[in-house]
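In the previous chapter we treated chains in isolation. Here, by contrast, the input contains two separate entities that must be folded as one system, with a combined length of 816 residues.
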Amino acid sequence: MLAVASPEDALKMIDEHFGAIRTAAEELPIYDAYGRVLAEDIHSREDVPAFDRSTMDGYAVNASDTFGASETLMAMLKPVGTVHMGETPDFTIGKGECAYIPTGGRLPEGSNGVVMVEYTEDFGDGYIYAQSSIAPGANVIYRGDDVKEGALLLKTGTVIRPQEMGALAAMGYPKVKVFQRLKVGILSTGDELVDVDAPQTGSVVRDVNTYALSAGLCAIGAEPVRYGITKDDHASLTAALHKALSECDAVLISGGSSVGTADMTHRIIDEAGKPGVFLHGVAVKPGKPTIAGDINGKPVFGLPGHPVSAYFIYRIFVAPVFQKMMGQLTEQRREIAATMSRNVPSNHGRQEYIPVSLTVGEDGSTLAAPVATKSGLITTLCRADGFVCIKRDAEGLRRGEAVTVILF
Amino acid sequence: MLAVASPEDALKMIDEHFGAIRTAAEELPIYDAYGRVLAEDIHSREDVPAFDRSTMDGYAVNASDTFGASETLMAMLKPVGTVHMGETPDFTIGKGECAYIPTGGRLPEGSNGVVMVEYTEDFGDGYIYAQSSIAPGANVIYRGDDVKEGALLLKTGTVIRPQEMGALAAMGYPKVKVFQRLKVGILSTGDELVDVDAPQTGSVVRDVNTYALSAGLCAIGAEPVRYGITKDDHASLTAALHKALSECDAVLISGGSSVGTADMTHRIIDEAGKPGVFLHGVAVKPGKPTIAGDINGKPVFGLPGHPVSAYFIYRIFVAPVFQKMMGQLTEQRREIAATMSRNVPSNHGRQEYIPVSLTVGEDGSTLAAPVATKSGLITTLCRADGFVCIKRDAEGLRRGEAVTVILF
């Protein structure tokens, strides 16, 4: 008989079993890799820039030719060519010479700085007049100034955001290796459940968990596989679990884990493989009857039937390890700092998570208000932006207290 | 000749032209609607719950039969049936009677409260003994307590997150209307540009903008359509723009908008339709030479060639109106509060945006450090988490100053 675990121990156990597992890598064109997780270290293949280049539109010069120049004492320079974008100049800059160069153009041999076009004058006499002095290196980025060949730039586990996408393109990576999405099967158990499109006949309960957990998996980049509603009997649930395990990397089973007459999930998970169930019961409210099993290396989680409880448990105990299995270096926190706008009592003796809605106060700060505890499921789902943890030993939360809101 | 606009005026003009436009709606199964924006108001189609139900496992009773009960003076109740999940009880509860009821079970006629199973005893003598009194309504959620039929629950413009997905399922919505994704064409102009898979020959510049902007569009739920690199001549750019306009809802053109010898973007956008270009030049650094045009109701933006500048302008001036066009009630802010970890001087006389990298300080606060201004493109892209705005009249930012970081 497994003892009820503290939330910290539960997270630890789950991480011990699955935290080192990674999905396989796949190679994608970079434009398909937005939001994906790098499965390889990215090194620069070359010096960048590959050549000394101008950062402004202006004139490439020998900086010393401009020393002492001003609006009233302009430096007279002879243009000996024009630099064109994408071309290597076929001329050099000698003493007293210059060449028009656009932003990004390659510095001609002999030049070591660029006078911005705004600080020059062209009186049409065949010369360019610099109205300002520049130091050597002004408005120039040198070969390798950005990155040197071989430098490690992006590490395995980095999520590809727009800036990483740009860096990959700049470094000449048309394809990139990323971790595959974790395929997670979702089973809902309960004889009372009907699918979302069933009409309300008076006593039925819709299968909310399939959809909320589906979305929760999409939110972390996993791929939900919906197996729908399974009857609450040994044969049906066993068959459904085996099918899901054969097709997915992990399985979520909601319902069938409460102190009720239909609790057989623990037994079915244990029967499905080794080592079996390693966690049953976590000292949190809601969600105490949470089950975690290791079936030949695949995670199987038993979640509560109530959708808000099921989602809490998924969010706190399941999603982090799934993100780790998809290679993320650090869990995308999806948390926000806020201030409680009301007192919340708590005397449950368990770590408690309460749903909160967020508003912006007059001073621009984020306020968190508890969603009324007697609210029904739909009201809670429509109002909750996330939830706040009340530690086991705390008496509750005070109005004005700083909290971390875990976004839904 | 259009005057350079302040950032506030630029945003206002862009919003005036496009802020009222919406993409068409499409109907999707809800499990495909994660992250999409509701294009319809969602009302409850029924009372929820549709019947009075128990929130605990226990016994349905007349509350008055338990008044005065305690562990030493238990109330004796006769079980007259068992409530099963998903079924309407076919018996009633009379005085002194009870029935086992699981969490979520329907209250039998005649009962008005539930004693939790933990507060009962079954001595095997045919009676159930309640050890605690309950008030009427204890552990019960009444019909309509959650939502009443016809109540407006989710408004047009709401982004579907996991909680909204759960609410839609609970309310019996197998399908939902959402705004279509905005199709945005991306053109990169510049004779010096080569595609990402071109080898570095020494003078070429890779087309970073196509990829960074692609990812930036994915980040807001838009659909990028990549047209690649266009040569810097009137005929090529005109043909490319016309093709993009015929296939997309909006177009981004990067490069070709600086004070250079190849600036014809303004003219080509003007020639493409009416009313044409309404903005050319915004008093921001980087990104001053920004162009916005209205081509028969379709937005066409001319962005700088430098990828960090192009992305800034996209992020600040383009993405918000695109999100509005896809129906979002409020722009997903994607901002974070932070403290500057270093001074940043600024004396440019223009509103300036500087890229910053974020770290977490010892006290858990978020720190923003400027990415060195002479950093090259790749270094900036690999280090920047977002950027901070320095207002035109500010002298810069001070170490310790509170700032808002606009995430990349």
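Chain A touches chain B through 91 residues (CB under 8 Å). The first strand of chain A starts at residue 25 and ends at 29. Compare these points with the single-chain example from earlier in the chapter.
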